[in-house]
Amino acid sequence: MPDDDDVLDATEAIARLERWETHGGAWQVLDDGKSTGRTRIALLRCDGGEEVDRLESADADVFRWLVSRGGASD
Prior knowledge:
Layout: E1 7-8, H1 10-22, E2 26-31, E3 39-44, E4 51-57, H2 60-68
Parallel strand pairs: 1-4
Antiparallel strand pairs: 2-3, 3-4
Helix pairs in contact: 1-2
């Protein structure tokens, strides 16, 4: 599990996800944060395959953004 220095705020996490999408990458929600308090997202290659990186945020705005994008369910 990442330490607190690796946990992004909503602005950073959403900006990173938007850049990833802009460059053709895909992402997948690994943990919605409901039980852990931290949303975890896998960053996937542009073909939707291999995981290249992950990001994590404790900010509820990130989960709301994911829901608005259809990537997570309430």
